[in-house]
Design a protein that fits this description.
The complex is a heterodimer of chains A (about 600) and B (about 725). Chain A contains 21 helices and 18 strands. A six-stranded parallel sheet of chain A has the order 3-2-8-9-1-10. In chain A, helix 14 runs antiparallel to helix 15 and helix 15 crosses helix 16. Chain A starts with 10 loop residues before the first helix and ends in a 10-residue tail after the last helix. Chain A is globular. Chain A is of the alpha/beta class and about 600 residues long. With about 725 residues, chain B is an alpha/beta fold. Helix content of chain B is about 45%, strand content about 15%. Chain B contains 34 helices and 19 strands. In chain B, strands 1, 2, 4, 5, 6, 7 and 8 form a seven-stranded antiparallel sheet that branches. Chain B has a six-stranded mixed sheet with strand order 9-12-13-3-14-15, sandwiched between helices. Chain B is globular, with a radius of gyration of 35 Å. The chains are: A alpha/beta (about 600), B alpha/beta (about 725). The interface between A and B is large, with 39 and 40 residues.
Chain lengths: ~600, ~725
């Protein structure tokens, strides 16, 4: 049995871990949720009675599952019976791969289309509908238990969109591909048409953990419930999340109320909560409490709870002076408040805003380094096979990286196997060895990767053209990376294509983080600087539940900060001579919130 | 759960074979070289943990010989195992079902687990891209294929296809003749990949007991000694507290040995000798002699040896002192115990595969053993070529292997029969009659006379015994031939079965005349009755034969004895008169009767004689007078040639040579010089049978061999 040191977790956390019943756990920001989950998983693993059982943990992102898995391993627990990953990987691994033969559409084999190719197809299909201003971004779909629904809020476009998507699905079917929503859809259909599948699976899973339930979609609840329900409560679950941080409403994610969950599962859930915030100062906690949409208590409990936080809000600065304002805030935090640059995060609601800001900040503050997704010179499509290989290609063998690179190597081999490559006589170690032995002298990043990938194929005797999946991923990896580099160079990052910039992507976080608000989910920083907090961005202009959703977004943003929080609603953005002569106005909640912000002397 | 079916395609000596198994004990019967070991090898590749590595090391030699000389290129080896009676409500089966179970809507009862040894994806894609009928293109792709670079082993589960169906093979693998190759594989038929979480070998317990001929040396080899395996398994379970006193004792023992004065003296001597030899500088700084009796349980337990006394003896000795049979019995027992231990672990189905138990132990012990082997939830499959052992198992649980050129066929003797018929067969398969399961051809006869005389006639006339022909002659002791004959059918045992029986035609005029004596009337009635029954029998057998090319009846016009006589064997019967009758008038009358051409007269006499002595005894008496000159009745010869259709040149030549030497023995004036020379040519394939006949006809015209050759042509 897994035991932990006394005082390594608090009473609430221990209760959640030891509870022998299914639990719905509401965890406030900074409450040590990941720690609790890590211990819970370790505890459940140690309780498994047979080698034929698995602990299932469903996380929102691949990064989260990597992190939790690593942390469980660090506890010294054998993780061979732990399966952890996103709901999509879960459906692939446990439902579609083993049972696809029972779906007419999938029985002759299928592969998952990557986002780049899917975007390409849809963009082409939208071409004839230019007049209606329909673009790829309108083509969002949401799988529900009965069919697919359009996410485009403009109902007038629906007729044309339906035609586009019908064509899109036809193309996918012809190529024997499925996209991400279809993974969920077919997984659910299989569980529905063959009840015995859920019956088999539930006996393999005595415990299923669902993280970030507030961002879980209806069909995902239904998939999990089919399995849990089949075991009539004998399989336990822990559902964790924070309804206040539900920021994927537009993608269909929502916190299902307890009663509804219970009805779906067919058994009761014990409500528990983690309400001690170990992260932020009480000032910060008091501040973001305003943005709550669900009444959950939060108690400041951290070591820094008495920190004299500086919380500022600037709604006067013009967009032209935004860089200078942010630069000043950074300098204040580093020089006056003694905050490490690694602990500063700059965040904005949309990707477009942060991509350009990073470049400008690099110019303005040459002594600092910045780490932002906009800076990755190649496609970070985590599901692209060659992206996975690039992780090994762009990292150096070192004792610190060994465990991680071994895991990547294992992942690559299992993907190769799934693609139909015979890898039965190559071990993870041997694959890593092959990678380490490849020497390429090349300064251009993409050329480097291309030659690296080719050498791998040569060594493994893979003819790329014979493996459609690998080949598709290969072409789309390079096509999307070229696009991206071209764009970045146009924006002024002249040397972005160099191999050194490629390698940076996988180095440990270094410098000031630049991220979208959604991207900060689960993260924490001493100082958070948020800008672009404008009506139309927060909330998004066509969000019909905007008032509530923008509150949640601000809640997430503000609760990331340990010590200082700086909010900016810059003027002169998207000026319209009639509707918005001063540019977009600040987000309504910021205007309405009567808070006495601090002022910084600078 | 049990193995219900094993399908082999292109694997070793199986081009396309299918084995059916039942719960409990199953038998695979087959002559040497028919592939018993290969079936087991195939099963082990899929189910035995230690064999899994070999599944990835298949070679050209593993392809069926029909595909030799590079014809294997592009083809697949398929080994498929079907399981029945699964239960998706049992948690312990869930992982197995997840990987291999065939999901019906809300239950799982069957599962399949398949090995495909097939060209890798790139080759398969190239094949699928060929235009239909592009044989040149096909050959180009195939020519470059090597096992090393282009073949892979792939496991699937949940398949529903009948791999034995050639049309399905074409759908899965491709049509080589018309060059049509699939670009996709329909997983609903051929199964989906086994998930990596599951290892079938870990889900079940599987024990294989190899046919051994040298058990004693196996006991001496640490790797194969079953006692070691058992002790090793158990040593991990010894409690620390239980073992502590023993390890203390061992340590004391080691210390005492080291302290022996002699040991100490030697140590001192070694030390001083080194110093004398190389000087102090180069001498080791310290040196001691340590006693190393092991103190870890694993090693210490392995020093245990089995001592056994033979039954009825007081002396208890080591394995090497036991009789071979005794050692075999112990070996098998330990293996069974190993199986029992394994069974109790985390597995839900138990399989015990025993290769030729007759190689281990005496028949009588085997019988007892198999009667008592009842481990519940355990399926046992054993191979045998012993008739004794096959009788223990049920005819429904038998698979028969038949060796053909370059491949083997598998028959299930009870396919398609209803329980009542199976019951009938079962009753007939006693120890002697199980022979028919092994034979290449079978002759069924109705009584003792045929059973005794036919083998003697064949041996004396042809010089070769029925056994050598591979024909089993079975005495049904009645005319209920169908009970056994139904075994031979396209669905069951595909071997020829000849039925030899009497038509019982009337031997006299059966029309009753008014002034017939009562006795005569009675006799005529009896004859008429036999005739009627004989006719009815023929009608029944004719109907039975319809649509079954494997069974055919052959009739003596009257009865065996009468037809034997009529075929030209008067002399043999006449020899018996003096034995049968004592007073000379009867002897004389009998002689006259037998000399009479009228069947009513000589047949009546023969039957009177036979009935007086008893048909069996009469046959034994007759047997003493059978010689090469005896003529085998035509219907019997026809039966023999039906039961065994093909004869090698050598067998024919042996028969001819036998006839020549017998004729020469009785008349050395015959000149066989040319015949013998021609026979030699025939043997070596220089001339054909027709040419040989010409020369034989010149020397022994009218000899039976000519009729025989006529049939063989």
């Amino acid at each position: 049995m897994f035991v932990w040191e006394k005082d390594s977790i608090n009473k609430e956390q221990e209760d959640a871990i030891l509870k022998d019943k299914s639990v719905l756990l509401i965890a406030c920001p900074g409450s040590g949720k990941t720690r609790t989950l890590t211990y819970k998983i370790a505890y459940e693993l140690s309780r498994l009675k047979s080698e034929k059982e698995f602990v299932i943990a469903i996380t929102y992102t691949n990064n989260a599952s990597d992190e939790i898995k690593e942390r469980v391993e660090l506890l010294g627990v054998d993780t061979s019976q732990l399966w952890i990953g996103t709901i999509h990987s879960f459906c692939m691994e446990w439902i579609l791969k083993p049972y696809h033969l029972y779906a007419e559409r999938l029985k002759n084999g299928f592969k998952v289309i990557n986002s780049f190719d899917s975007e390409k197809i849809l963009t082409e299909l939208c071409e004839p509908y230019k007049k209606e201003k329909i673009t790829y971004y309108d083509c969002g779909i949401l799988a529900k238990t009965d069919m697919f629904y359009l996410t485009c809020l403009d109902v007038r476009r629906h007729n044309s969109l339906k035609k586009i998507l019908t064509e899109y699905f036809t193309i996918l079917e012809k190529n024997r591909q499925i996209d991400f929503e279809q993974i969920l859809f077919y997984a659910y259909q299989l569980l529905k048409s063959k009840p015995v599948i859920a019956n088999i699976l539930c006996k393999l899973f005595p415990f299923i953990l669902i993280d970030e339930y507030q961002d879980t979609k209806e069909i995902q609840y239904h998939i999990i419930s089919k399995i849990l329900r089949a075991n009539k409560g004998a399989s336990k679950t822990l559902i964790v999340g924070d309804p206040n941080q539900s920021i994927y409403d537009s993608l269909g994610g929502y916190p299902m109320p307890k009663e509804e969950l219970e009805q779906l599962f067919g058994f009761e859930l014990t409500p528990l909560s983690l309400d001690k915030n170990y992260r932020s100062s009480s000032a910060i906690i008091d501040y973001f409490d305003y943005y709550k949409t669900f009444a959950t208590p939060i108690i400041a409990f951290g070591r820094e709870k008495d920190y004299p936080s500086s919380i500022t809000f600037n709604s006067t600065v013009s967009v032209d002076d935004l860089i200078e304002e942010i630069a000043q805030l950074i300098l204040f935090n580093v020089e006056e408040a003694g905050i490490s640059p690694n602990e500063i995060c700059i965040t904005a609601p949309q990707w477009v805003h942060i991509a350009s800001i990073t470049r400008k900040l690099i110019v303005r503050l040459p002594d600092f380094s910045f780490d932002g997704p906009g800076m990755a010179p190649f496609s970070r499509d985590i599901d692209n096979f060659w992206f996975k290989v690039s992780r090994i290609a762009l990292t150096e063998p070192s004792p610190f990286m060994y465990v991680r690179r071994m895991r990547w190597s294992r992942e690559i081999l299992s993907e190769l196997d799934a693609a139909g490559v015979d890898v039965s006589n190559i071990s993870n170690k041997e694959f890593l060895k092959i990678c380490n032995s490849i020497e390429i002298i090349e300064t251009d990043g993409l050329a480097y990767l291309k030659s690296f990938f080719n050498q791998i194929c040569q060594q493994l005797k893979i003819t790329l053209t014979s493996f459609p999946l690998l080949y598709e991923h290969f072409t789309s990896f390079f096509a999307s990376s070229e696009n991206r580099i071209e764009k970045l160079i146009k924006e002024g990052n002249t040397f972005i294509g160099e191999i050194e910039n490629f390698r940076k992507v996988f180095r440990q976080r270094d410098g000031i983080t630049v991220s979208t608000i959604h991207g900060t989910k689960g993260e924490e920083y001493d100082t958070v600087i948020g800008f672009g907090l404008l009506d139309g961005y927060v909330p998004h202009f066509n969000d019909d539940n905007g008032v509530e959703n923008s509150k949640k977004l601000l809640y997430v943003l503000a609760s990331r900060a340990r010590k200082n929080l700086h909010l900016i609603s810059e003027k002169q953005r998207n000026v319209h001579h009639y509707y918005a002569p001063e540019g977009k106005p600040p987000t309504c909640h910021l205007v309405e919130y009567d808070y006495s912000y601090a002022t910084l002397d600078s | 759960m049990y193995i219900s079916k094993v399908t082999l395609l292109n694997y070793r000596n199986f081009a396309n074979a299918n084995f059916q198994f039942q719960k409990g004990i199953n038998t695979i019967i087959g002559e040497n070289g028919s592939g018993k070991t290969n079936v087991f090898k195939a099963i082990r590749l899929l189910l035995e943990d230690a064999s899994l590595q070999f599944a990835y090391k298949l070679t050209e030699g593993d392809f069926n010989r029909k595909l030799d000389k590079n014809k294997w290129k592009g083809h697949w080896i398929i080994i498929s195992i079907e399981f029945d009676e699964l239960n998706n409500e049992e948690a312990i089966q869930s992982l197995f079902i997840h990987g291999a179970g065939i999901a019906e809507e809300d239950y799982v009862k069957k599962a399949t687990y398949n090995l495909f040894f097939r060209p890798k994806a790139d080759i398969r894609q190239k094949l699928s891209e060929l235009a239909e009928g592009d044989t040149v293109g096909l050959q180009t792709v195939l020519d470059d294929i090597t096992i090393q670079d282009n073949y892979e082993t792939f496991f699937t589960g949940k398949s529903t296809a009948d791999f034995n169906d050639p049309a399905l093979y074409k759908e899965l693998v491709g049509d080589f003749e018309n060059v049509i190759f699939p670009s996709t594989i329909d997983a609903s038929k051929f199964g989906s990949k086994i998930p990596h979480q599951m290892s079938v070998a870990k889900e079940i317990s599987f024990t294989f007991i190899q046919a051994l001929r040298d058990v004693v040396s196996d006991f001496h080899n640490n790797r194969t000694n079953p006692l070691f395996t058992l002790l090793k398994n158990k040593s991990g379970e010894i409690k620390e507290a239980d073992y502590r006193p023993i390890s203390d004792l061992v340590n004391d023992l080691n210390a005492s040995i080291e302290a022996l004065p002699d040991v100490q003296n030697i140590r001192a001597d070694i030390k001083s000798t080194i110093q004398d030899a190389v000087g102090l500088t180069y001498s080791p700084s310290s040196l001691s002699i340590k006693s190393s009796v092991p103190d870890e349980p694993e090693k210490l337990l392995q020093s245990l040896k089995l001592f056994i006394g033979e039954p009825g003896e007081e002396y208890e000795g080591g394995i090497h002192e036991l009789s071979l049979g005794g050692a075999n019995l112990i070996f098998l027992t330990l293996k069974l115990l190993e199986f029992k231990y394994r069974k109790s672990k985390d597995t839900f189905a138990n399989f015990l595969i025993i290769e030729e138990p007759e190689a281990h132990i005496h028949n009588h012990i085997q019988k007892t053993l198999f009667d008592k082997l009842d481990y519940g939830d355990t399926q046992i499959i054993y191979s045998t070529h012993s008739t004794q052992i096959s009788e223990v198992s049920n005819v429904e649980n038998i698979n028969i292997l038949a060796k053909k050129l370059n491949y083997a066929e598998v028959y299930q003797p009870s396919t398609g029969l209803d329980p009542e018929n199976i019951n009938q067969i079962q009753r007939y398969l006693d120890a002697v009659r199980t022979n028919l399961l092994f034979a290449k051809g079978v002759i069924l006869v109705e009584g003792d006379a045929e059973e005794i005389l036919i083998p003697i006639m064949v041996k004396k006339v042809l010089g070769i015994s029925l056994d050598e022909f591979g024909i089993s002659l079975i005495n049904i002791r009645s005319t209920g031939f169908e009970n056994v004959a139904q075994l031979f059918h396209s669905d069951r045992i595909q071997r020829k079965c000849a039925i030899l029986t009497d038509l019982d035609d009337a031997i006299c005029d059966i029309t009753e005349i008014a002034d017939d004596s009562d006795a005569l009337k009675k006799y005529k009635k009896k004859v008429a009755g036999s005739q009627k029954k004989g006719f009815a029998r023929k009608v029944k057998l004719d109907a039975f034969e319809i649509g079954n090319a494997w069974v055919k009846a052959f009739y003596a016009n009257y009865t065996f004895e009468v037809d034997f006589f009529a075929e030209g064997n008067e002399w043999e019967v006449i020899q018996l008169i003096d034995q049968v009758y004592i007073d000379s008038p009867t002897r004389h009358r009998s002689k006259t009767d037998l000399g009479d051409d009228d069947v009513a007269i000589h047949a009546k006499r023969i039957l009177t004689m036979a009935n007086q002595e008893g048909k069996g005894w009469f046959a034994i008496m007759l047997g003493k007078h059978i010689s090469y000159k005896t003529v085998i009745p035509k219907y019997i010869l026809d039966g023999i040639f039906f039961a065994k259709e093909t004869y090698s040149t050598n067998i024919i030549a042996d028969i001819i040579e036998y006839r020549i030497s017998k004729n020469f023995e009785s008349n050395n004036a015959l000149d066989f010089t040319i015949c013998r020379a021609e026979l030699l040519k025939y043997r070596n394939g220089g001339i054909i049978l027709e040419d040989l006949v010409f020369d034989i006809d010149l020397v022994i015209p009218g000899d039976q061999i000519l009729t025989l050759i006529e049939k063989l042509k």
